[in-house]
Recover the amino acids of this structure.
């Protein structure tokens, strides 16, 4: 597709009606658009041609910040290619040359090629880089979301006028509004990275870092921990769901509520949950379960994935997660419950899947 | 220089044979199992290179494991736990056990010959460094076979690495094992600096020195300033792990970012410590292959120095995403970009050399060309990631994995291979096969690019580093498969290379002594079988002596120049002055000995026992190490020579003893203490860092140490220094009282150290409570450890006087000890200021 003019972000970034590149992100996550290529060349060309590569791509352009950074990418890439070819051509020409008088040329090569040309290029790049950095710093946030990296999941707290709303592993953001993420950690260093939306930022114990994201394209985008954080680092993922502002407001209001009546009505499942000690680590607001060690599960079934973004949330996946936790995510802190009776497991899964 | 060469007539054959026999006798290599006691650079250099390539092979196999694991999604070939060990060890071994040691190994092998010197100034120190390297390397690498390898990443970020629950013994193995190896690296760096500065042939002024030697000087200097901050960091991290001292724990006033600063103040210069020596190999090979001197000699040197300086000012570009203020990001981004200019100048000087010369395309040049193609690409992506917003995306993604391998494999590995093809005949007397060389090159070049070019895109598609697996729906499958295939092709190229290097060459013809018709002095030495290297030490008047001084090679080989024999059967080398290389004296250097192996073994044991917290055993091993070193020094070559002067031939007569600033030993002590002080500055940096990040430091509720005992302690240590100075002066003046002064030094020093510790103790400082307490205690601990080493010195000197190995004019050990104490005086003064004065400064936010 032809490159589209992409406005730099600002206080009120423009909003597009259709997802960038005409790709439905929801289908992307099911791998429908997964790149299928046969040769080495095609592998390299594929992302160039499509311009976006999936829900984790820097070039998906789903957020204003990612687009600002993307404006650097293509000029850098083509500039580097041209410079590399020029240096190689010069080296080969110099190697083959049988020229006798070289003095002037030598000066030109050393001073021009070694000092002047790189000097101009890096000075220009530096200016462009600093201007871009300022553009990123100029984003004015409305919404504030606190995200804490935990081994190996994400604690998400929305700061609303009505009080804190706690959730986990899925961050929902309204389209077109700049959100400020306050990033920290209580255990080790993690890094928050949703490449389709913007750059990354470390989450460091004892510090709170700030990152703004301005989503532009509705859909579900992938995120992951970018700083090695021990054992299950590879499986510390999350989703960023970008919603229409009205839908987002409804969702946040629902998220602030205690667990649904339908879920609480499943007494057998709730008692398996409590008797198995799940409440020691997990909270389900509206029940006795008030653990703070693991993810809040009050609206667990409203999320798309489980285990910190590692698998689509289905009945079968949830059963596997409960009984063979370590197989799905080696290193995870949650113990497996392989000895639950089939009835107890049915009841528990029924309860959890009702936590909409 | 007053001597004029006048000895052009053929010399009498009998005398020539006698001289050769005397050299062969003095420099005889021990045979049989005693071969390991050899210390000459031509042996140690080769062992060092082989060992470094051994670790390279090991780390390369780990890389293949990584690529095999990542070839397909959701692979369970390696467990999560094992993978985390494998990638940590791959980075660790490549950086610490190959990239830096191979520089030192190659330099140990070729530097002395290139300088027309018989050996490095401290051969036993090279051997000691080699054995430390092997013991430490085997210990660190071997841990993976016990499932105990470090798994915190080669960068070892706390709090992951500072928590013994999270990262087990592997982290201790990493911290202590690598500190041990770093000690060896610094030892080699000291030796190389003294080698370049003091062991050049007469007449080789600094501006006539080969480019390779310049690079060695610059890089060894960088090691001296880059490694100590990491050693300081290692000390802090191990203190936190083993004893709970609070340095990196945010809950107790520590800060995880302190480690990142200390690590990258080491880690970024490290990249150039790896890169510059390899460029140095190219700068040496290129003139030989193009039949032309390197164009822009001074530009190259100034650029190398420029890179070295800049490299210490851009460590923060590894920390662009840690949330630092934009102003810092801008500054470090600019510094990172600026390094492109001196790097570019060096590369374009080489291209200009190609233009001026007439080059032929053989294996060394192929590898040099491949290095250029790969490195320039890595440099260009480096310019990209140095731009802060770009790095927000690229950082910790596979884009950076691709970038760093382009710079390191292009900037380091390919030049090393070029160097192996070039110097193989120098080291072994045989040529490597051109045909296999081409195979090896094209396999490696193609394999490398197939493996690493797609990784840029893998990173763009969002794949983070250090993941042991990835889900099939991420869109990374095909790219990873291609990268893995490339890795195997790259490995195949290395197998071809290794086969060619290692295959028996009994039937291949002997290489000519100077197969490349090169210009540097190492091609004028006698052959791989003569460890004394050069037959006679010539006077140098040009940059490319074998080209520009006609007949020089013949004269050298005829023994027509200086020091053409080994008169008393002792190993000797000429020491010259730093700037103009005027001959100053002839230094006796030691021959084979097991003492270096014992010293390395005991020191290694001390570190290894400490890993397991076997403190008593560690202390015993340390004591054994100290005793071994004392024996080593006592039986060394530092005594009073029987004849004061030596006839070096051509009417040149030189002293056989030097003391003070003219001697090689004094310079070694000076350079050692520069490195030592840099580590100390790392600790001071920790104090300053906490001071800036905390609103008030010391924290509210903490009583700083009482200035009175702290000041008394500092004064007593100053008094010990004054006593050392007095002893030196009294001895040199031939007056009485030097012995008494030396005896009083330990008394004053121990009392001073005790007073410092008492000050902190009485203030109730508890290093496990807060970072302030821990920082004060670690500074005091540092001074105490130095006092412990410092009090051995006057006692040693006293014993040397008593035994008749020192007198009023032969006082090298005493002068070197005074130098140590002068540095200790400065460190004590700074520590005193931090303990007694800094808490008086009102804090901004308190």
């Amino acid at each position: 597709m032809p490159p589209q003019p992409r406005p730099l972000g600002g206080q009120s970034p423009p909003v597009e009606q259709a997802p960038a590149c005409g790709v439905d992100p929801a289908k992307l996550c099911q791998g429908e658009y997964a790149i299928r290529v046969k040769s080495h060349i095609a592998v390299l060309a594929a992302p160039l041609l499509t311009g976006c590569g999936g829900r984790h791509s820097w070039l998906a352009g789903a957020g204003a910040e990612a687009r600002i950074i993307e404006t650097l990418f293509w000029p850098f890439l083509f500039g580097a290619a041209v410079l590399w070819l020029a240096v190689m051509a010069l080296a080969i020409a110099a190697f083959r040359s049988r020229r006798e008088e070289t003095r002037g040329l030598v000066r030109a090569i050393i001073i021009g090629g070694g000092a002047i040309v790189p000097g101009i290029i890096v000075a220009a790049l530096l200016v462009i880089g600093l201007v871009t950095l300022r553009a990123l710093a100029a984003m004015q946030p409305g919404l504030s979301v606190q995200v804490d990296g935990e081994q190996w999941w994400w604690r998400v707290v929305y700061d609303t006028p009505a009080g804190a709303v706690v959730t986990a592993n899925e961050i929902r953001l309204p389209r077109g509004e700049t959100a400020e993420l306050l990033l920290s950690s209580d255990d080790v260093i993690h890094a928050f990275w949703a490449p389709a939306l913007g750059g990354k930022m470390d989450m460091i114990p004892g510090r709170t870092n700030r990152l703004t994201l301005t989503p532009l394209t509705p859909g579900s985008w992938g995120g992951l921990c970018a700083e090695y954080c021990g054992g299950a680092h590879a499986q510390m993922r999350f989703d960023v769901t970008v919603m229409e502002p009205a839908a987002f407001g409804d969702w946040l209001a629902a998220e602030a509520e205690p667990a649904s009546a339908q879920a609480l009505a499943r007494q057998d499942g709730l008692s398996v949950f409590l008797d198995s000690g799940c409440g020691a680590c997990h909270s389900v607001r509206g029940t006795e379960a008030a653990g703070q060690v693991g993810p809040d599960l009050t609206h667990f079934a409203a999320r798309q994935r489980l285990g910190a973004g590692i698998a689509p949330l289905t009945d079968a996946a949830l059963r596997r997660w409960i009984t063979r936790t370590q197989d799905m995510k080696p290193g995870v802190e949650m113990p497996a419950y392989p000895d639950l009776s089939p009835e107890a497991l049915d009841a528990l899964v029924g309860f959890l899947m009702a936590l909409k | 220089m007053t001597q004029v060469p006048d000895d052009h007539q053929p010399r009498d054959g009998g005398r020539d044979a006698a001289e050769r026999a005397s050299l062969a006798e003095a420099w005889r290599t021990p045979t049989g199992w005693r071969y390991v006691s050899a210390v000459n650079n031509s042996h140690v250099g080769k062992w060092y290179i082989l060992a470094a390539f051994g670790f390279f092979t090991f780390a390369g196999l780990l890389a293949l494991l990584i690529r095999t694991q990542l070839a397909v999604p959701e692979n369970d070939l390696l467990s999560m736990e094992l993978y985390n060990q494998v990638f940590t060890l791959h980075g660790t071994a490549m950086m610490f056990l190959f990239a830096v040691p191979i520089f030192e190994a190659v330099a140990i092998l070729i530097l002395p010959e290139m300088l027309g010197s018989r050996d490095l100034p401290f051969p036993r120190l090279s051997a000691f460094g080699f054995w430390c390297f092997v013991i430490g390397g085997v210990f660190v690498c071997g841990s993976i076979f016990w499932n105990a390898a470090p798994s915190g990443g080669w960068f070892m970020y706390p709090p992951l690495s500072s928590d013994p629950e999270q990262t087990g013994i592997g982290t201790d193995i990493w911290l202590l094992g690598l500190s041990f190896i770093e000690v060896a690296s610094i030892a080699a760096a000291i030796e190389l600096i003294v080698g370049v500065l003091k062991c050049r042939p007469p007449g080789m002024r600094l501006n006539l020195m080969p480019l390779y030697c310049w690079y060695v000087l610059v890089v060894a200097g960088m090691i001296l300033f880059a490694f100590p901050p990491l050693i300081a960091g290692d000390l802090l991290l191990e203190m936190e792990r083993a004893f709970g001292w609070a340095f990196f724990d945010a809950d107790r006033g520590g800060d995880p970012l302190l480690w990142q600063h200390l690590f990258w103040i080491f880690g970024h210069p490290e990249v150039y410590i790896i890169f510059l020596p390899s460029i140095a190999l190219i700068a040496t090979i290129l003139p030989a292959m193009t039949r032309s001197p390197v164009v822009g000699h001074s530009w190259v040197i100034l650029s190398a120095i420029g890179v070295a300086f800049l490299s210490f000012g851009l460590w923060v570009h590894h920390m662009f995403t840690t949330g630092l203020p934009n102003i810092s990001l801008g500054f470090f981004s600019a510094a990172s970009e600026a390094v492109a200019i001196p790097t570019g100048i060096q590369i374009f000087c080489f291209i200009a050399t190609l233009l001026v010369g007439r080059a032929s395309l053989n294996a060394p040049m192929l590898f040099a060309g491949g290095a250029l193609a790969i490195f320039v690409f890595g440099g260009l992506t480096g310019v990209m990631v140095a731009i802060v917003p770009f790095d927000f995306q690229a950082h910790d993604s596979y884009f950076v994995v691709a970038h760093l391998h382009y710079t390191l494999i292009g900037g380091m590995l390919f030049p090393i291979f070029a160097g192996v093809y070039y110097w193989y005949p120098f080291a072994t007397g045989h040529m490597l096969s051109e045909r296999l060389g081409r195979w090896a090159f094209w396999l490696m070049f193609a394999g490398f690019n197939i493996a690493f070019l797609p990784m840029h895109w893998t990173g763009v598609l969002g794949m983070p580093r250090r993941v042991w697996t990835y889900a099939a729906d991420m869109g990374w499958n095909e790219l990873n498969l291609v990268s893995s295939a490339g890795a195997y092709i790259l490995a195949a190229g290395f197998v071809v290379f290794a086969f060619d290097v290692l295959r028996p060459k009994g039937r291949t013809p002997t290489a000519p002594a100077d197969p490349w018709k090169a210009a540097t002095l190492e091609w004028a030495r006698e052959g791989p079988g003569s460890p004394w290297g050069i037959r006679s030490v010539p006077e140098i008047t040009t940059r490319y002596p074998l080209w520009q001084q006609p007949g020089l090679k013949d004269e050298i080989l005829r023994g027509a120049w200086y020091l053409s024999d080994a008169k008393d059967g002792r190993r000797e080398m000429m020491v010259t002055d730093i700037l103009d290389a005027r001959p100053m004296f002839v230094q006796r250097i030691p021959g084979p000995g097991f003492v270096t192996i014992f010293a390395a073994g005991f020191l290694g044991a001390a570190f290894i026992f400490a890993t397991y917290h076997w403190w008593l055993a560690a202390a015993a091993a340390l004591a054994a190490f100290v005793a071994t070193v004392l024996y080593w020094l006592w039986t060394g070559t530092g005594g009073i020579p029987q004849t004061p002067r030596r006839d070096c031939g051509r009417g040149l007569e030189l002293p056989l003893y030097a003391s003070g600033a003219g001697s090689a030993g004094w310079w070694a002590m000076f350079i050692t203490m520069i490195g030592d002080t840099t580590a100390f500055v790392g600790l001071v940096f920790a104090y300053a860092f906490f001071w800036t990040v905390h609103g008030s430091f010391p924290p509210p509720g903490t009583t700083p140490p009482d200035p009175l005992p702290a000041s008394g302690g500092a004064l007593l240590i100053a008094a010990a220094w004054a006593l050392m100075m007095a002893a030196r002066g009294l001895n040199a003046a031939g007056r009485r009282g030097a012995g008494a002064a030396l005896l009083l030094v330990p008394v004053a020093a121990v009392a001073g150290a005790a007073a410092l510790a008492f000050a902190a103790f009485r203030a109730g400082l508890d290093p496990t409570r807060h970072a302030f307490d821990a920082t004060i205690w670690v500074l005091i601990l540092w001074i105490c450890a130095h006092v412990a080493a410092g009090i051995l010195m006057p006692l040693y000197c006293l014993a040397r006087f008593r035994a008749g190995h020192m007198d009023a004019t032969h006082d090298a050990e005493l002068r070197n000890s005074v130098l140590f104490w002068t540095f200790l005086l400065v460190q004590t003064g700074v520590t005193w200021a931090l303990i007694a004065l800094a808490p008086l400064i009102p804090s901004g936010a308190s």
Summary: The mean pLDDT of chain A is 87. Chain A has ten helices and twelve strands. The longest strand of chain A covers residues 143-150.
